[in-house]
Design a protein that fits this description.
Layout lengths: L7 H9 L12 H10 L7 E6 L4 H14 L4 E4 L10 E3 L2 E2 L2 H21 L6 H16 L3 E5 L16 E4 L7 H4 L3 H8 L8 E4 L4 H14 L2 E4 L5 E8 L2 E7 L4 E7 L4 H18 L9 H9 L8 E4 L3 E5 L4 H14 L2 E8 L7 H8 L5 E4 L10 H12 L4 E3 L3 H13 L8 E7 L2 H12 L1
Parallel strand pairs: 1-5, 1-6, 2-5, 6-7, 7-8, 13-17, 14-15, 14-17, 15-16
Antiparallel strand pairs: 2-3, 3-4, 9-10, 10-11, 12-13
């Protein structure tokens, strides 16, 4: 493929055909070499680096909105997103397809050099990361808010040195690559903590907290902990989200409306606030204007996180893809939505802890429709249904091999012989980012 004559679809196809992440050798050498050839664009602005297991994208987006409300020029890199080009955002807006292609074309000659030099070619994610840093340098952003792809130490985003490192709750996920215990995973994730950085961490289990504290001591980083230096003081469910009182590093902030659902999103908001205070205060506890905080959080959006895409019946999309994330989703729909009947459409990757996700989901839903998404890693619908039957019982599980039919069936099951006067009915589509992306395409039509 000639990189000088490509359209968006061709670029996406080329990136998807590159060396797979599932076969990557953990190293920063390839990405560091690409950065060197590009003139080290990751060093042209300050960086806030967001790692952890769940909540990274939402926290990254909230930090972005707060910084922009403070008047800064902000670049944002998130992973994954419904569209590949959405991963790179400038000033709050994803780059358009034309600019995405231009970025690809600009770095393609340097990608080819690395491919030739290295023992294995760059992965698609490594290339897109290079495109993001190139975009930020070209746009002259003041700060880049960068979400870790997977892990920390050898994740390719770690070529940047974060002034502020944020760690969301650390849980089991990607065990094949990161290790089988919380301790192993935490040891990998703390690699984003650089000398002299300020670390903003969510409340962690003891197994995760120890490596964080040890890493901070090792590199001379300053740490602020949820529940000690900052946190959520109060939260109340509100129409379209929740109203929070947040304790930041420098002040408390009342009557903060967050248009996102769930206690986990309130926790993400507290992390985002503390990270923003630390960054703007150059590591010190600098209070922010209350109106700035309120405006920033009111503008927060997190696609695919209990995102309402239809009404009558309500259809929600949620990208939970591990037990910890699914437990947060189940708690949120139980607490914040008045569903008397909720049917879940589930499609998940076969290499995930699917049983754990189903067990976390079970108390919150009436029935499950097992299906599959477009990913080759997706568990076959029949296999998922058999697994779900051991958790829900056979009478609460239905199988539909294709997602369009699964959604149609779930809507029918939700509305079947149901008196709307008794309460609301809904459909929750979940289990994977790919599932959410596929469903959005179908429902947008």
């Amino acid at each position: 493929m000639d990189p000088t004559d490509t359209g968006y679809a061709q670029v996406v196809a080329e990136l998807q055909q590159r060396w797979p992440d599932s076969q990557v050798v953990p190293t920063l050498e390839r990405e560091a070499r690409l950065m060197e050839l590009l003139g080290d664009p990751q060093r042209t602005c300050q960086v806030i680096h967001v790692g952890g297991t769940n909540g990274k994208s939402s926290t990254t987006r909230m930090i972005d909105t707060l910084l922009r409300e403070a008047g800064l020029r902000v670049g944002r890199f998130t992973s994954p997103e419904p569209r590949l080009s959405d991963r790179i955002a400038l000033h709050g807006e994803p780059v358009d397809e034309e600019r995405f292609v231009e970025l690809y074309q600009e770095i393609a000659p340097y990608v080819a050099i690395v491919d030739k030099e290295a023992a294995q070619p760059l992965t698609g994610f490594e290339v897109v990361t290079g495109m993001a840093f190139a975009a930020f340098a070209d746009a002259g952003v003041d700060v880049a808010v960068v979400e870790v792809g997977m892990g920390g130490s050898w994740d390719c985003t770690n070529v940047a040195d974060g002034t502020v490192a944020v760690l969301t709750p650390i849980a089991l996920d990607h065990q094949k690559y990161l290790g089988d215990t919380i301790l192993d995973i935490a040891l990998e994730k703390v690699g984003i903590i650089k000398p002299g950085a300020t670390v903003i961490t969510a409340g962690q289990t003891e197994a995760a907290a120890r490596p964080i504290l040890e890493r901070c001591a090792e590199v001379g980083a300053t740490i602020a902990r949820e529940g000690v230096e900052f946190g959520v003081l109060r939260r109340a469910v509100a129409v379209g989200g929740q109203v929070l009182t947040l304790q930041g590093l420098g002040a408390s902030y009342e009557e903060v409306f967050l248009p996102l659902h769930g206690a986990h999103q309130a926790q993400n908001a507290a992390l985002a606030l503390a990270a923003t205070e630390a960054f703007l205060g150059a590591g010190e506890a600098r209070p922010l204007e209350a109106d700035l905080v309120r405006a920033g959080f009111a503008a927060a959006r997190s696609p695919g996180r209990l995102e309402r895409v239809r009404t009558a019946p309500t259809i929600l999309l949620d990208a939970a893809h591990n037990p910890h994330g699914m437990a947060a989703t189940a708690a949120a729909v139980t607490e914040e939505f008045d569903f008397r009947r909720l049917v879940a459409v589930v499609a998940a990757a076969a290499d995930k802890d699917v049983r754990g996700m189903l067990e976390a989901l079970e108390p919150a839903v009436t029935a499950v429709v097992a299906t599959r998404n477009t990913s080759p890693r997706s568990m076959p619908a029949g296999q998922l249904a058999a697994l779900a039957a051991t958790v829900f019982g056979e009478d609460r599980v239905t199988v539909a091999p294709a997602l369009p039919e699964a959604i149609e069936l779930a809507v029918a099951l939700a509305e079947q012989d149901f008196d709307s006067a008794l309460g609301g009915v809904g459909v929750l589509i979940t289990g994977s980012v790919v599932t959410v992306t596929d469903a959005r395409v179908l429902l947008a039509g």
